[in-house]
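USER: Please consider what follows.
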Amino acid sequence: MEPNNSCDMQRHYNDLLQHLPAGVVVHGPDGRIRSANPLAEELLGWSEAELIDVIPSASRWGLLRSDNSLMLTADYPIHIVMRTGEKVRDLVVGRPATQRGPERWLICNAYPEFGADGRLEQIVVCFTDCSALKRAEQNSQKLAERLRLVLQGSNDASWDWNLITGEIYYSERWWAMLGYEPGSLPSTTDLWCRLAHPDDKKMLHAFVKKLLVESQESYAIEFRMRHKDGHSVPVLSRGFVSRDPNGKALRLSGTNTDLTERKQAEQRIYEAAYFDHLTGLPNRRFLSEELHRILARSARSGQIGALLFLDLDNFKLLNDTMGHDVGDALLRQVAQRLRHTLRHSDQLSRLGGDEFVVVLEDLGLVASDAVAEVNNVVGKILDVLGQPCFLDGRQFFSTTSIGVTLFDGITADIEALLKQADLAMYQAKADGRNAARFFDPRMQATADRQAALEGALRDGLSMHEFVLFCQPQFKSRAKLVGAEVLVRWHRRDGALLSPAEFIDLAESSGLIVPLGQHILEKSCMALARWAKDRTLRKLKLAVNVSVQQLRSPEFPATVADILEATHAPADRLWLELTENVFAENMAEISQHMRQLCDQGIRFSLDDFGTGYSSLAYLRNFPLAALKIDRSFVRDVHTDPSAASIVKAIIALARNLKLDIVAEGVEHEPQRIFLIEGGCHTIQGYLLGAPMPIEEFEYRYGVAGAASN
């Protein structure tokens, strides 16, 4: 009888493996696969013939870790068991998508089986699809134990309810999931509902009632159960319903999965999407969604609200000088102080950088009341953020500028509110910082004009509206030695704008780089034309370049390309810089300048003496000329101090063997003083006003000289 019993048992065991809601792969002691059930074939994406006698490896299977990185062969469950002789529990493994099926994620458990002599006989690896794990009934104690081992290491707790006899079975895992010892509570059919969260009981009753009367065979439902310690355990219950031929429910069987980790992961994802990781405050996305609700409430109630835009004063300086760690510590302190200052009903968010937003609700039905409430809150904020901070063992003082805009929920638009408060904040900074300003429609009008001008500036570049003017430079009085390029914006409406009206905007908008390249290209084209004129070819042409241009790693190559394309003589091209070019990244600037000098180009330092002048500039950078600023030239014949400064600059340039150019010469006494003092290159209205480059070429070229 024993052989037959053994065969029957094996047949039952094999039958169970065919229908078990888990993939089961049996390995020999050498790691080679002996057998695999159909679900294993389906989940792994290979047939039994492809699996048998295979040792799993990364090169063949390409399994993934839970973080989507490639799992090493040594970390496969079978190899861990072979190496350690111990069980593997709750290992999350990914199977990449293949032509045979989509990507799957599996919960793996592996355990060794030893013979009577203590030697390893086989290794069983069980895995379940994270979204579908079914419990199969077992016909024998041995098979039931093996299924228990499959489920033991996972978050799945099996249970079974015989609807005919009323008998119900809860597995050890079911009890452990809720913190109870098996059988410590009566195993009754209503235990589920007694342990269910009060808010979920009604829903759970209705679900079970509907499940029993309908014809579906499988189900899945999420609800919460009460742990012995009192906290709630989120549970996903999945299973199947056995029915007779008439559809009557006979049995409910399934598993409960603890969703705690998944819910925590979802919460982490939610926090990453909606909260700032540094301060823990809601971020811009959260603020935007919350503002929709706030504006809706304001529209219904008629209550006025306010949006406050906060920006820390001089935060960039602190960040750059003390380091980002100190800057981050300040931001955390600011967030903490704001939390303690504001009401729980006030919405506080961090937009990014050193920008925070506060939204106040229910400030009153009239604007005057709302303004008074806002001023009260603003006063508290400025006071608390003006207190000293202790960062990295040192005391720092920080102030804040605040922009305020009111809203009523009817005419308000979220982006418009943020923009208005931002404009008001910049006004607070312009008025001296550490202050608050309410939005005024005139601010918007100014911003709109700036935006329109920037748009026109972009269009002007594409339409080639920027034209070159030249102002001549003379040696003493009579001899023309060069010219400086001065750009003008000739707009389509006929207006001719000087650089003072658009250069600052070009720099702040980033358009200075394409504008500067346009000017340089046109200037080199002019030099190429001049090279064919026996008079003009002797002249040097000075072109201003911006900080952004010279700092660009591509600038030397760009200039070389322009010279090559235009055939302009490089030794006639002078690039004029201002001292702010040397404010930072001096090594990089020096390298770019030397690369340009290697091409034959020379450099002149414009407005010398007006910026952060340093003799180190003259020693460390390849300069060929200094240009005396017009502010000194203007008073040189009337102010002894100005005269002394000019004399010192001329003497310095001569000792360093640098050319010297004086600009802004408008009166004869100025010219005489400069010539007698040793400055022999003069530029200014006294000798020649800026003129279109075509007029300059005609007047001073061969053709012009002949006509004169």
